[in-house]
Amino acid sequence: MLAKRIIPCLDIKDGRTVKGTNFEQLRDAGDPVELGKLYAQQGADELVFLDITATVEKRKTLNELVKRIAHEINIPFTVGGGISAMEDVSVLLQSGADKVSINTAAYKNPKLITEIANTAGSQCVVLAIDTKKEEDGEWYVYLNGGRTKTDTKCFDWAKQAVDLGAGEILLTSMNNDGTKAGFALDITHQLAVNLPIPVIASGGGGKVQHFVDVFEDAKADAALAASIFHFKEIEIPELKQELNNKGIVVRI
């Protein structure tokens, strides 16, 4: 059985790590490279760095930051934010990123997924989906950092992305994000069970039991969290040991 992965996420704004609730009310959480080094030392399996204002402000992800991260950190890491063309991907991979996360640009130009997969390999393509459960009980795709609603259902877009060549889905529930009340188990389960690629659950992790639930009940391949790690509410070694004690396969 493949080990379940624990992935700290560092949302970056103006070169600093920030964290909010439901995509708003951002507060500073420290230097992304220093935090990343700490998490690597503590046993994180991978890291995700997201430049959260790049798409909105029409900036490209900070390439210099990626070089610093690659120089300092010895575990795989994914970079996202403002990636809209193969040229952006090439620069980031050459600077040391292992994977790229694409979201809004992929939705607007689905061929970008195939282009990256054909050029760099499907394993490099992480499709990030920000999704929100609406009053009709359906989960819909949101764009531009959660600012723009679409009429596309989350599962439909995820399935299309797999067909186009995506190698992994990073699924963030906007309803759960930053609440520390648990992951969105229903939509995570739907994707994890029905898609042939790994699904990373994001949004809502607040205590060890939430990670147990998302792995055991929702069948996620990996779980991503931010503020509980940034503000030392749960330490990664402690989390992994607890998961191991409950029979969940993790890399200790």
Automatic annotation (TrEMBL):
GO terms for biological process: L-histidine biosynthetic process. One of its GO terms (cellular component) is cytoplasm. It is found in: Cytoplasm. Keywords: Amino-acid biosynthesis, Cytoplasm, Histidine biosynthesis, Lyase. It comes from the Bacteria. One of its GO terms (molecular function) is lyase activity. Coiled coil: none annotated. Pathway: Amino-acid biosynthesis; L-histidine biosynthesis; L-histidine from 5-phospho-alpha-D-ribose 1-diphosphate: step 5/9. It holds the Pfam family His_biosynth. Its main location: cytoplasm. The active site is at D11, D130. Its EC number is 4.3.2.10. InterPro entries: Aldolase_TIM, His_biosynth, HisF, IGPS_HisA/HisF, RibuloseP-bd_barrel. The keyword NAD does not apply. The keyword Lyase applies. It catalyses: 5-[(5-phospho-1-deoxy-D-ribulos-1-ylimino)methylamino]-1-(5-phospho-beta-D-ribosyl)imidazole-4-carboxamide + L-glutamine = D-erythro-1-(imidazol-4-yl)glycerol 3-phosphate + 5-amino-1-(5-phospho-beta-D-ribosyl)imidazole-4-carboxamide + L-glutamate + H(+). Heterodimer of HisH and HisF. Belongs to the HisA/HisF family. IGPS catalyzes the conversion of PRFAR and glutamine to IGP, AICAR and glutamate. The HisF subunit catalyzes the cyclization activity that produces IGP and AICAR from PRFAR using the ammonia provided by the HisH subunit. This is Imidazole glycerol phosphate synthase subunit HisF.
